[in-house]
Every structure is written in C-alpha cells, then in structure tokens.
Amino acid sequence: MLHPLILGTLALLAATPAPAQSNAETARGCGELVTIETHARTTTRYALADPQPVPPQGTRVALLLLAGGGGHLDLDDEGCPRALTGNALVRSRALFQGAGFATALLDAPSDHTGEDGLAGFRVSPSHAEDLGKVIADLRRRTQASVWVVGSSRGTISAVNAAARLSGPSAPDGLVLTSALMSGFVGGRKPWVADTVFSLPLEAIRMPMLVVGHAQDKCSRSPPERMVDITARTRGLRQQVVTVTGGPGWPGPPGVRACIGRAPHGFVEQEAEVAAGIARFINGSAY
After folding, report:
1. Between 161 and which of 17, 131, 181, 242 could a Cys-Cys bridge form, CB atoms 3.0 to 4.6 Å apart?
2. For helices 154-164 and 125-142, what crossing angle results, to 10°?
3. Global pTM?
4. In Å, how far from its chain's centre is CA 211?
5. For 133-149, how does the pLDDT look when each residue is reduced to its tens digit (9 = 90+)?
6. In the chain, what are the domains?
C-alpha cells in the first residue's frame, strides 16, 4: 500500500495542468486532445482516437470528422464533445474506430465559439488553410493517409479543404454525408446562402464519396442534387449513394428536419452507413 504522503503527491501531479507550450493532453475519455495554432493567433483543438484494434503498419487511415451546424463541439479536457452530440459523425466515431480508422473530431477555432460557430468562415480560404494545418498535424501524428469526412454543414468545410489544399496539407480522399446543397439567399445572416456549390468543386480530383438519404426532408440537403456535385468534380474515383429505410421523418420538409436524429443523420442506420464508407475508403464500392 502506498504511503498517504505519496498518494497525495500523485494526486497533486495529476491535477497539475500541462505546460503552456504543450499542444496535447492524453485523455481517458474520447481520445487525445490536441491543440494547434491556426489563423490570426487562434488555436484549434481536435480529439484524436486510435482505431480498435490497431491495424498493421502501412495500412493506416485517419478520418478528420467535420460536424455540421456551427461546428463548435465544445470539446472537454478528455476530448469529448459537449455540444452537437446528436450529429451523425459524432455518434459514429466509435464505428469508424471499429472499422480500423483513427478518428480526429475537429472543434471550431477559438474565435468561432459563439452562437453561429463557423458561420461564413466555412467558405473562406483561411478556413481551408486551418484545415490544412490540422491535416498535416494529423498525418504526422498517425503516419496515416487522411480522409476528410463532412456531415451536413460540415460538408462545406470538407469541400473547401479538398478544393483549395495541395501537397502534404491536402486530404487523400473526401466523404460528404447529407451535403449542404441548397442555401437561403436574402436571409438576415448572409452565410446561410453558402453551400458546397459556393466553392470550386472543379478543383477536386481525389477519391470522393457522396452519401444522402432518400427520405431526408431537410430543405438544405435535397438528395436528388447529389449528382450535381459529382458532375462538377473530377475525382479519381467517385460514387453517389442514396440510403433508404430507417424510421423516416414525421414532419413536413424544412429546416426542422436538418437534425442528426432523423434521416438527415441516418438515424438507426449509423452502422450501415459507416460500413459503406469504410468499404469505399478501403478501395471498394460503398
């Protein structure tokens, strides 16, 4: 048995925060909390979790997960999100880890933690540069190829990275789920008009998967428009998938249906969708 004085010392050391110059903390909850410097002296955090089980060296893939809404997950000290917990990618990260992928759940930068979160910053070149820094850091830490996976409004960020980045900061592949394809022009907040079509889709040449749900009644992600995305991109390998089934959405079409626990977020079909995404990333069809 340890002496009480030793126990007290260990408890004090455990409670002592990491040095200011450190950019990572090992978390017991949802992964390793990583902090990097981004635009204009801001910082951005992501929660990095290993695959379970860890695949052989040389076959590693890391997924950079970009949630929808405002993108502000409010990650706690253990890398667990306190906001947007209903988002499809947030709910599915353990499924991706079980499929052999490392996951990096990305929070909003430190200057975009308000009510609107990333808002119009999602389409900016500075946002793409920030994502490039995250991708480069993630690739260095995992020694893996990096795919960007966006959900709902997070698909705008994902397309921004895929279209604008090159070299070691560019993703190796792109997955869009319930992509934002229809904006609202003339709204009180101009950024609500932004969609994936606001960005130079023609510049995307990497493998790309686009997944939507036939019963998605979110007015911002009409599934019939998914083919318009791949009509403009020039990916090495492209596939559009329309998921069917599930519990559906009881209400009328509109923005109220743009939530994670609905067909928009593949509710009760998370395992099916994660498995299809994994097949595509691994080189097969969805």
Report:
1. 131
2. 80
3. 0.89
4. 14
5. 999 999 999 999 999 99
6. 20-281 (3.40.50.1820)
